[in-house]
Design goal:
The chain is an alpha/beta fold. The protein has a single domain, classed as TIM Barrel (Alpha-Beta Barrel). The chain contains 11 helices and 10 strands. The strands form 2 sheets. An 8-stranded parallel beta barrel has the order 1-2-5-6-7-8-9-10, surrounded by 4 helices. The protein has a two-stranded antiparallel ribbon with strand order 3-4. α3 packs parallel to α4, α9 packs parallel to α10 and α10 crosses α11. The termini are far apart.
């Protein structure tokens, strides 16, 4: 009985603290100047997988509470507590309408979708492109193999949606950027890289060097900073870990990258919002510094 009562107290305290966390995070981020990122064409958003313990609607509310205008959806997230459905192709018209209304009310746009499976079977892959097109999504992040590239490139051109090849840690197929470069050799601009900076660190790679290798192929980001390199590392607020975020931003600017940058925060799952708010704060502060430093050089 004592353990049960203690559990109820924890739940009560968590529910009481959540609104104040939302307010404080929103107030702090609201003071930031986002001009530098906007001029660079950097669309900072959140990968809703960061909130995979919550529904998509809750994830969008959390994103909006810290001043984010963009988000990346992932397949299979519950739409909301009141809607019995999952995010992705196969949603009903009513579910799609509800999602569009939620996004409009929160003033959040979807920029990307992933990581999602695609194949050389056009009939199987086309619904993903149709669903993304309906929601205004411009990038599909995937780990599809080269044998499907002809089909995927055809659909990308048809729907005007780019493909980002995502790197999970070693030994996943695209863990090394050299594999991405080899796979996309001779291809047009429709297929490139979804750069996951944290997974490069987990694989023992230098994220800045990886970005340099992928110049001209960067489509999107799953941006992370980690407490250390190697397996077992966890996310920390940007600029407080080992990823050398200022150098990453400087390299992105040098390359003229434009596109979605998703905060994918895979730590402290139930209480990560204050840390994600700090990522937003630090991103805009460091981006402004990057632009100023470029002016003086």
């Amino acid at each position: 009985m004592r353990r049960y009562c203690f559990g109820l107290v924890l739940v009560f305290l968590t529910n009481c603290m959540a609104p104040s966390q939302l307010v404080s995070a929103q107030e702090s981020v609201g003071k930031l100047d986002t001009t530098a990122a906007e001029k660079l064409g950097w669309k900072l958003g959140v990968q809703t997988y960061s909130f995979n313990r919550f529904s998509f609607f809750e994830a969008i509310d959390k994103a909006a509470s810290v001043g984010l205008k963009y988000a990346e959806a992932y397949p299979g997230q519950t739409i909301s507590a009141d809607i019995d459905g999952k995010m992705g192709p196969g949603m009903t018209e009513e579910q799609m309408r509800a999602v569009k209304e939620k996004l409009a009310a929160a003033d959040v746009r979807l920029t990307a979708f992933g990581v999602v499976g695609l194949s050389a079977d056009e009939a199987a892959s086309r619904p993903v492109f149709e669903w993304c097109k309906e929601l205004g999504i411009g990038v599909i992040n995937t780990e599809v193999r080269e044998d499907a590239f002809d089909t995927i490139e055809k659909l990308s051109k048809e729907y005007g949606i780019k493909i980002g090849l995502h790197n999970h840690p070693d030994p996943s197929y695209y863990w090394n950027p050299d594999t991405v470069l080899k796979a996309t050799e001779g291809r047009g601009d429709w297929i490139g890289a979804c750069a996951d900076t944290g997974h490069w660190l987990r694989s023992g790679l230098d994220p800045v060097e990886c970005l340099r290798k992928l110049e001209g192929r960067l489509v999107s980001f799953h941006f992370k900073d980690l407490n250390r390199a190697g397996k077992g590392a966890h996310d920390v607020p940007w600029g407080t870990g080992v990823a050398n975020v200022p150098a990453l931003l400087a390299e992105m600017k040098r390359q003229g990258f434009q596109g979605p940058i998703s905060i994918e925060y895979e730590h402290n799952w139930l209480e990560s919002l204050p840390e994600i708010a700090q990522c937003v704060q630090n991103f805009h502060r460091l981006t402004a510094q990057t632009v100023e430093a470029a002016k003086s050089n």
